[in-house]
Amino acid sequence: MYETLSKFAQTWGLGLFVLMFVVAVVYALWPSNKSKFQAAAYVPLDEGEPGDE
User: Fold this and answer.
1) Which of 21, 29, 33, 44 has the fewest CB atoms within 10 Å, measured from its CB?
2) Who's near 28: CB < 8 A, 6+ residues apart?
């Protein structure tokens, strides 16, 4: 029983993580998200003082 459950979890767990990785890569490379990621890239370079909102 344990071996069967372990084998099932290993194969479907790997498939789930591969699917999640593919979805994350597609989201990151989707053309309509480009402006959001470009704006986020400049956040650390903002000239504001810490605590200024």
Assistant:
1) 44
2) 37
Q: pLDDT per residue over 2-18, tens digit each? A: 898 898 888 898 999 99
Tally of CA atoms within 13 A in the half-sphere of 15 that contains its CB: 6
Report in angstroms the alpha-carbon separations of 52 from 23, 44, 46, 49: 35, 14, 11, 6
Find the length of the chain.
53
* pTM beyond cutoff 0.85: no
Q: To which residue do tokens 């704006």 refer?
A: 39
Burial of 23-40, coded b for 16+ CB within 10 Å and e otherwise, reads: eeeeeeeeeeeeeeeeee
